[in-house]
Write a structure and sequence with these properties.
- The complex is a heterodimer of chains A (107) and B (219).
- Chain A is built from 5 helices and no strands.
- Chain A is an all-alpha fold and 107 residues long.
- With 219 residues, chain B is α+β, with helices and mostly antiparallel strands.
- Chain B starts with 7 loop residues before the first strand and ends with a helix.
- Chain B is built from 6 helices and 8 strands, in the order E-H-H-E-E-E-H-E-H-E-E-H-E-H.
- Helices cover 34% and strands 26% of the residues of chain B.
- The model of chain B has no long low-confidence stretch (mean pLDDT 93).
- The chains are: A mainly alpha (107), B alpha+beta (219).
- The interface between A and B is medium-sized, with 23 and 29 residues.
Amino acid sequence: MSCVAIDFDKYQEEVVNHESDRVKVLQHLIDLLKTSSTEKTDFTRVFKMCLRVLELDHEFLAREFKISRPTVSRWEAGVSAPHQLGRKPVYQALLKIANAKHRQHGA
Amino acid sequence: MKKGAIYLFKFGIVDLNESHDAFLWHKDFTQNNSYIFPRTWEVYEKLANDGQLICAKDDSNCFVGLAYFILDESEWEVGGLMVSNSHQGKGIGSTLMRVTLGHLLFEENPLERNEKIIAHVHSENDDPRRIIEKSLKFDHRKTIQVPGIKLPGLKTDKDGIVHGDEFELKIPDTLSALSSWCSNWNEKLRNQHSAKIEFRTGVTKGIWASAFLDMAKRY
């Protein structure tokens, strides 16, 4: 097995930069959740983005939102979306998660 | 029940950890009822793990009723209604079916894509038929005859045929009725025991009522 020499200082800098980028991405997501419309196309885009940025799996969301796992998949794929009146509460619940992650990474 | 105790029934999705308990309850129920198709553990586990089983529970957290919704090709089916014998006559079945249908309509919005919602009932099973026709205002679509060998466990006629009926959600009648129920339901069952629906965060029965009214006008 070959050994790779790691420049610890450089690695530490990369980690700090990554964390800073992560905080920025989370802040953008928070802004997106606060300002997005509840039109179906926007809902699908925002929902998909949240799954990716917040690293949420289907089982977690199904439990958290009290919906079925196939429903999470269909929302993500844009096949379906909740009724328009049910979209804002989804944004609000995701905003809560995003804020918590932002605090965690920003601290 | 102790005098003065608050008797709370809850309606909501079966928790993933309780899929096996739900199956055992279903199995026990279908062993004594030949109008409900007994599902296998694999099928029931999938329904539960996918979050497509809706239950009614008493204040001891025991199941008192179950129903499901499922997408079969391009049609949604609500059904599999079971209410324990000791809790029948309280309005648990009609509440459970309304919650199941309401959840499906609100979270999937299938009418937006012109997807039909249907229900099947054994021809001799009067309790769910009454709920589907009178409470949910579904329309009778057709009668069905299936060889009993394809639906083992269901009651057949002397020729081995299972007789049933297929009902379909009627627009706007079903939606208006459901909206009106959401607006007026006082969170009590027929016997005045309190009950609640476990909605997802930020959703209320008032929001459901507005959504179903909107669907009734829109579709």
